[in-house]
């Protein structure tokens, strides 16, 4: 337990005055004004020239403070996102399976870590493509700093080509004249041969006397390629693409491979190199093909949790700790037809088992054979979840077991209590049983992947990891007790991370972000005079100065993605299959979804004329999404969306065509048994007219 109340005070306490901010509520309201916290468990917002509005803490979705507090709106029709498209290939020649994302800038030091989930840390290549805009007319010098090869084109002119340079960090440059406000093509290709990996893109020119990273605002990404546009790679063979994560929640660093079948009993061992035996998760994706036209029953046997989708329909949902247990779900299959399959699994602790059987009236229950499985062969399915922000990298201080990040200076620690200070507050203490990491200095995300799960020890600046129990931190030294090597001392500043325990990957009900970069995982919060009282998920009560709070928002444990909720009924347009009418995290054919000129990483695409009904079971409070016509929809075609709760209309949107702007949907579903989404063609039906439901979520009470 943290000593009494852990006072995270940034400065002298002053009267709890209002600060400019924005409050978003669970019933869909957004209120701007002066925001203050009331000790009675309310947030009070006073709009400019208006009357105060009281909101219960339990009704808050999001509170932000600062001069620009309203979340950035989607760009107006014709607007464009910023950054540059990165296409990451798991090869040395820019061919084969790839993963894409929008990178704000090219400024990476991966060292020996993975550049992105799904691509290994050695022998990979990246192609960044988009456009660059000059702030002023003049001559610009473009500079690459890379380890290893790079070649660069601007306005379709090659500026340099050093594809096979000597190993080590090298700098190359080339110059070109650009006109103010004119966007020209930009392409940077990079190759990593082995060892440390770095890639940086800089420029200098009018008003930029010294080289600096090209800022996101001067970059516009190219649209992501579809699976059909992927360069041809070697056949992957039969089986399923397997993505193994070193976390319970299918996030963070990952190892990928093709599994011939899902038939694993790992016992107490790890499932893949670099993945520990506990607290891991796996996503298998691909297609399944039936030998006969029959009703098939799927039987996953797992220890612990499992979810299974066939053709984007959730047929098994047992996302819970359990001993080896069998679940089942049925789906009709036609002979020779391919259906999307996705199985997700997590292992908490102890024994680990993951198996997938099927059966039908003519086929006895058996492990689904390799010959019936086709792996996802491009990066399309992997692009749906962007790389998580490297929050740890910006913090010097503590990571608590809850996942909370606390900026602090460490004074000393023994094997039970750690003492530290923040700003003017000293002699703060926390039990080492609640500490995950001590960070003497910011930890690069690429180096964080070198910390093995479930093993205490120290991660050194060299990248080496020394395993053992932490005995003490004092006088600039860290003492570690190793089973193999006995007691060993390290310099405190030679360590990137001092590891006591694994941080939790389980989402919290709330996240509290602070102006110094600290992020607190909270199960609840309240107000007391000049402070916000935060109940940390693992460490107990933390007391923070209200003036230091930058943002409070609902955490992941209160959200349920609609795509992971049981679909009970689907009414489709005549002659349209389910696979053509509904797609998760992509348009049909694994093409990235775009809405209002922005890529959409998570959501649903639904053809006009389709109605989908989901089972809620009274477990949720609000449904949220942003919805509109997909950017690629045919010109002149219009649609409208309707949301029904328990069969009664709760929302009807205006008619929309591509580029006319999406609408926000916020519907009260408290106590509701069903939620229905209906997409209506506003005119002549066209099977190419697709709606995009961006980040559709259900919020728990």
Report what the structure shows.
This protein is mainly β and 701 residues long. Among the domains are: 109 residues, Jelly Rolls; 137 residues, Alpha-Beta Complex (Toxin - Anthrax Protective Antigen, domain 1), CATH 3.90.182; 141 residues, Sandwich (Jelly Rolls), CATH 2.60.120.1060. 1% of the residues lie in helices and 52% in strands. The protein contains two helices and 61 strands. The strands form eleven sheets. Strands 1-47-46-45-44-48-6-2-3-4-5 form an eleven-stranded mixed sheet, with no helix packed on it. Strands 7, 8, 10, 12, 13, 15 and 18 form a seven-stranded antiparallel sheet that branches. The longest helix has 4 residues. The N terminus is likely disordered.
